[in-house]
């Protein structure tokens, strides 16, 4: 079992979760984070830290569509171990539905 990052992270990318992860299993894309499913120890400390409420257990039915996406991009994007600055317009995107079309496959710069 593991946790996954969902659509609510897209364009928000607050990164509070990265600071508390004991195993550094977050990977950064241009406008979203993902969790490496083979590195996550299912401790759950990241979930309450996410202001966008974008992190779910992979056992949650709402997470099903995000399991494969997290695994795919965790294999392509760079690992992130420290909290960075969120996008300047993150608060404007928080809670907006339908953001999957805005997901950038590019890795974080």
Computed structural class: alpha+beta
Q: How many strands in all?
A: 5
Task: Report the total helices.
Answer: 3
- Assign a percent range to the helix content: 10-25%
Whole-angstrom Rg: 12 Å
Pattern of helices and strands: EHEEEHEH
What tags apply to this protein structure?
single chain, 109 residues, alpha+beta, Alpha-Beta Plaits, two-stranded antiparallel ribbon, 3 helices, 5 strands, globular
Helix-strand blueprint:
Layout: E1 3-5, H1 16-20, E2 26-28, E3 33-35, E4 55-57, H2 64-74, E5 79-80, H3 90-93
Antiparallel strand pairs: 1-4, 2-3, 2-5
Brief characterization of the structure:
Helices cover 18% and strands 13% of the residues.
Structure commentary:
This protein is an alpha+beta fold and 109 residues long. It has one domain: Alpha-Beta Plaits (2-Layer Sandwich), CATH 3.30.70. Helices cover 18% and strands 13% of the residues. The chain is built from 3 helices and 5 strands; from the N terminus they run E-H-E-E-E-H-E-H. It has helices spanning 16-20, 64-74, 90-93, and strands at 3-5, 26-28, 33-35, 55-57, 79-80. The strands form 2 sheets. The protein has a 3-stranded antiparallel beta sheet with strand order 3-2-5, covered by helices on one side. A hairpin with a 4-residue loop joins strand 2 and strand 3. The relative contact order is 0.32. The model has no long low-confidence stretch (mean pLDDT 97).
């Amino acid at each position: 079992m593991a946790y996954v990052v969902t659509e609510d992270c897209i364009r928000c990318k607050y990164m509070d979760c990265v600071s508390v992860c004991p195993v550094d299993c977050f990977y950064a894309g241009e406008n979203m984070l993902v969790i490496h499913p083979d590195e996550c120890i299912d401790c759950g400390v990241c979930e309450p830290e996410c202001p966008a409420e974008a992190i779910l257990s992979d056992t949650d039915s709402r997470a099903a569509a995000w399991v494969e996406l997290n695994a795919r991009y965790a294999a392509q994007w760079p690992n992130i171990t420290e909290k960075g600055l969120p996008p300047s317009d993150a608060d404007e995107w928080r809670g907006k539905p339908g953001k999957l079309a805005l997901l950038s496959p590019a890795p974080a710069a």
